[in-house]
Amino acid sequence: MKKRTILIASVLKPVDDTRAFGKLGVTLEKHGYEVHLVGRSGSAPTSPNITCHSLGSFSRMSWRRVFAPLQVLVKILQVKPEVLIVTTHELLIVAVINRIIFGRLFIYDIQENYAANIRFGDGFPTGLRGLIAGWVRLKERLAARLAAGFWLAEKCYLSELNFLPASRVWVVENKAKKPSQLPARKQMNPATLSLLFTGTLSGSTGLWSALDLARSLRQVSPELTLHLAGYCARKSELDQLREELKRQDYITLEGGDTLVPHSRVLELIGQKDMGLVLNPVSTVNEHRIPTKLYEYVAYRLPILVMQHRPWVEFVHLHQAGVAIDLRYPDPEKLIAALIGQSFYGQEPTGVFWEEEEAKVIEALRRVLA
To answer: What is the dihedral sign for C-alpha 107, 91, 177, 199?
Structure first.
């Protein structure tokens, strides 16, 4: 019996993206689907029923990105999937065209509130933000009429994107895959603490706060180190970061202008003493749960988290770490709190991707019914 074909498409994410391949792709393959992944160049995974189609490498601000949706369209016409899953608003026009002309079903996997990110972020010139955000929202409203389903990576999107038809909406949170083996955690040494900052490297994710905090804590922990592992999309921020690193030899940068494989990120999570979640709170993220919170808890990495109630409650629920108010850092008090606590007194629950798998399969079955 021929397997049913699903194509998961992105523009900026690599073909081995954690959510598209590691979570959605592997889950669908496990349940008997043939999966095709389209995205930027990455380490193409080897799996009998998962095929990767690379769009090549290009920067966020390039003409190749503008024409990437046409490349995706060509791949869709070649593969002829029963269901197309698009993971970015940039591919909604392609998805709608395929729905109208060829009758192919599509699902919109919403990983960000893109319009809000553009309107309230600083990624575009001030005068253009409203116009671009409006165009993105217009595409999403058009898709709301034609999409077979919507998968929301955050619960808060239920209220933020309330124009989506409730009967076709599923919350599929971006939780962590359960580790096959937990890392062996050593006793923290207050003099040689090792800190970890993973994910996008940007001021909007707390990068500069991480550097300031590490500098402050070295007053009490003289051999403290900070490891940065992630991609920095903005050249200006990357240049600034590299200048900082010239003066601070206790900070290691891994990635920067290249993506860091997720397997390497998990390896680092298993090695370090403390993970940093210091995202500045904004209109865009105040109700979201940063993905690395799930990953740090899944691997039992103690956490230093920004003093923001939803994140603090998450950390306290799992006995996972300590909250910090960066306006009034007290290095001695903070390190004493870290060394004096016992973290993860019980098995975490509600943080694993395996809890979301049933939602994915049930939602897809309904689409195909």
So the answer is: negative
Residue 326 and residue 86: Cα distance in Å, rounded?
A: 38
CA distances from 253 to 19, 76, 120, 149, 231 (A): 24, 37, 28, 39, 10
Residue 242 and residue 117: Cα distance in Å, rounded? Answer: 26
Spell out the residues 6+ positions from residue 216 whose beta carbon is closer than 8 angstroms to its own: 329, 331
């007290």: which residue's tokens? Answer: 330
| Rounded average pLDDT over 135-146 | 94
By DSSP bridging, strand 83-86 and strand 50-54 are unpaired
pLDDT score recorded for residue 46: 66
Q: Are 115 and 140 in contact (CB under 8 A)?
A: yes
C-alpha closest to that of 272 among 314, 215, 321: 321
Q: Give the pair of three-digit tokens for residue 56.
A: 């090549």
Neighbouring CB atoms inside 10 A of 3's CB total 12
Confidence (pLDDT) at 124: 79
Beta bridge partners of 85: 8, 107
* CA atoms within 13 Å, Cβ hemisphere of 40: 15
| Alpha-helix runs per DSSP H in the chain | 26-30, 63-79, 92-102, 114-120, 126-146, 157-160, 207-217, 235-247, 262-271, 291-298, 309-317, 331-340, 354-368
pTM (predicted TM-score):
0.92
DSSP 284-341: TTTT---HHHHHHHHTT--EEEES-HHHHHHHHHTT-EEEE-TTS--HHHHHHHHHH-
Contact 264, 147 (CB under 8 A): no
Give me the percent of the chain exceeding a pLDDT of 70. Answer: 98
Under 8 Å between Cβ of 78 and 96: no
